[in-house]
Amino acid sequence: MKLTRRNTIKLLGAGLGSALVGAHWPGLAQGTLAFPEPKLLPLRRLESGLVEASLAARESNLSIGGKPVTLLTYGGMPGPTLRLREGETVRLQFTNHLTQVTNLHLHELHVSPEVDDPLAQIQPGQSRMYEFTVPKGSAGTYWYHPHIHGRVAEQLYAGLLGLIVVEGPVDAIPELREAEEHVLVLKDFAFSGSRIAPFTPMDWMNGKEGDLLTVNAVIRPTLRAQRGTLRLRILNASNARYYRLALENHPLYLIATDGGFVEKPVELRELLLAPGERAEVLIRLTQAGSFRLQALPYDRGAMMMHGGGMGMMNHQGMGGMSHGGEQSTLAMQGMMMGMGPSRLETLLTIVAPPNPKPLPLPTSLATVERLHLTKVAATRRFELGERMMQAEFFINGRMFDAGRVDVRARRGTLEVWELINKPDMDHPFHLHTDPFQVLSINGRPQPYRAWKDTVNLKKNDVVRIAIPFRDFIGTTVYHCHIVEHEDRGMMGVLQVEAE
After folding, report:
1. Predicted confidence (pLDDT) per residue in 215-261, tens digit
2. How is 335-357 classified by DSSP, letter by letter?
3. 3 state DSSP class of 265
4. What is the 3-class SS of 421-469, one letter each residue?
5. Which residues are CB-contacts of 212 (< 8 A; sequence separation ≥ 6)?
6. Whole-prediction pTM value?
7. Contact 293, 351 (CB under 8 A)
8. Displacement of CA 214 from its chain's centroid (Å)
9. CB-based contacts of 498, cutoff 8 Å, min separation 6
């Protein structure tokens, strides 16, 4: 029988059930802290419509859960929110005060890849100007983080991230304008002393998860609502953790996804956010009381080592896994086991005001274009794969090479990409620069149209997406947004050329 991860589990006859990620810090007070709002990035708005701002990456000494920690940040955890308006021209001066090379990715603002260059390198002490115009019709929730290949996972996990909020005319409708708005940056951590715990071989295989789950860098805060309707902008800024969200006794009304507003609110009992995904939801508080926003158990197919296999990996290191050959593989046979679903976690407690009076839901939000699939210029197939024992990940059998163009597309055309996930683990597929629409998952059409930049693929999923390449030419990338997998090869280069 061919040895695969699935067959290994069968041979072991093992399922770990609900695996504990780790214990919370001893003596940590939870659920007692007020809800923290990330600070805003100071902006200088000129009469010409030009906005100027500066941002810097540096090592920061902060506190999480009442304990001192050292992180890499953009001036706080999370970094300051960059709040912009449609149509503004922005000059953002970014400076690298780290001791290592980095860059800045404006995750998924529709701006030229010459500006949001995923392959740029900003050396310690250097600066780079990011100048762009915020597109009309782009109102929504975005974020920024590093994208320096090979170091994305470590830099993001250490705290380099922040929100971008774009405001537009839709935000002025009464049902949104009068709602109480908050941002929720969901991020997990694992510490060794006051610093981020070192990455292990299993972290590179699975993606790193931590035992401390935070909302805006606070553990289980309490949000005391002042109004009957809440508008929550939610970002999954974790490297690999999935958040299957549900609010006690309340539905969630989805109003926006990665790429902006949907056409009308969509009622959900729960909402799954893969790494990198964002969503905006309305919550209508109809009764007084306290209600927990919870992360329900979710099994993303991550693996763990059992018995002597981990020792072998630690002894050989990543180089051993890459080049250890048959002996290394045989030594780890029978050592891989499924982690099972994550445990249920309370992220946040919402306290409703006395006698809340929720607003009516909006009847309409935005028009989401129906793409004309009769005019498709190309249909492409992308198969996600892995060599788990080597912690190597690839697309169409090839690991990332910055000097190789994997796909050439033309501006002004529409393409359909078929994404196929062969491994047992979930992989969130992310495309830079150009938003897409999900057409179907395993042949089933989506229940509503929406613009996306990240879509999750479970084991054996076949997902079809439609991408209009509209405004920009240049070199950009697509990749798995479990960023350890991106760093270990699951990324490709896309070159968009002129008509």
Report:
1. 999 999 999 999 999 999 999 999 999 999 999 999 999 999 999 99
2. -EEE--PPPPEEEEEEEEPSS--
3. strand
4. ECCCCCEEEEECCCCEEEEEECCEECCCCCCECEEEECCCCEEEEEEEE
5. 24, 25, 64, 65, 188, 189, 190, 191, 219
6. 0.90
7. no
8. 15
9. 410, 411, 473
